[in-house]
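(Deposited chain)
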Amino acid sequence: MSKPLIDVPKEKLQQVRMNMFRKVQREKRRKKRIVSVACISILCLSLLFSIRVSPTIASQVAKIPGFQAIVTAIAIDKGIKDIVDHEYYEEINVTQSRKGLALTLQGVIADNLGFVLFYDADASFDISKLNLEKVQLFQGDEEIECGCTFTMNASNQTYISSSVKYSFLKPIAYTSKDFKAVFHFQDEEKGNIVISLPFSLKNEIAKEKIFTANRTIDVNGQKFTITQIRRSPLKVALDIEVAKDNTMQLLALDDVAIMTESGERRESIRNDISTDGNIRDGKFTLYLQSNYFDDPASLTVMIGAVQAVPKGEDFIEVDFGTKEIITKPTYFKGDISIVQQSVAVKMKKNNEGKLLMLSDAIKEDGTPLEFKSLTISRDEQYVVETSQFEEYNGKAKLYLNYYPNPIGENIEVNIPLQ
């Protein structure tokens, strides 16, 4: 005989959940074993410690209201796990409702380089066709210029638990700790739903740790220099400069990671902005999972492969008027076709899922050709990238942002942190 469900007020569940969450982190840091605790404490402790070990347990815990977003973040980013372990995650718990949609800002992680907002949404209507279009971030009355990434995965027809990640274009000054997040939803029946969530940060903002590196790496005569390593709670930034006299155009550094003396490894950040700047301009930044709360004497930077092609052979030239392929590099192995304002490239699946990204294009008069969208299709053997551009009937050069042509692999360089 099944037991009747117990109706517990939502606000009580929320308070118990966060109290247990904080208790688990305190217990872990003190490394004490406590046996005379309530069952709920033991359960929360076991679940949180098992998230990194067992994907099955993580997927089950993620179904609990309020846990899904933070559990997902911990499972894919070791830096977020460190943040929670060191109690840098700041609980907010602010709720606003509009048109039957209740939005709760559960918590925030903030540093000089970015923000992560963790939120839940409960609805009194079917939200399977509800779209999150944008999320604005304000400090006081001023909107912050930043890159924003978000997902909105409805776990069922009435509930969402997700996050919004901001990467600041320049380090933010916390002259005010009063912020406001404005969520813009669009629903087929409810129309436009705008919900503002004001919040204030109480915790001290961790200062960025900056280390001068100036380590030049020479890969078959092609040079680039790691100038700085910048560490914040949310990410590690590697600032890189490319030598101007290189004979090849560097396109990408694959599978970059850092490792401490103890063997702790941090890789690229999934589902977030992983680069800043343009490698063609000679300066760019790579972002990795953070190890901010560790203080190693040195870091080993590991690069899986350096992809590069000869300068002057790093583009495809097409004529949108005649639909002709004017030139393509001699090394290029893909099939190219033009349909209206789209260029389709068919490649064999031998580049580990990485895309050519022909988004940077220049018209024959030297002005940019506006990139509109990218469509990807795959089968067992091939992947087809279809890049759509603005209406244009002339010639244009489409620059490769990636091509599988490694000039060096499995590179390691040790950098002291002074």
Observations:
- Residues 178 and 200 are 4 Å apart (CA to CA).
- Helices lie at 10-30, 39-50, 55-61, 68-76, 78-85.
- Residues 10-30 form the longest helix (21 residues).
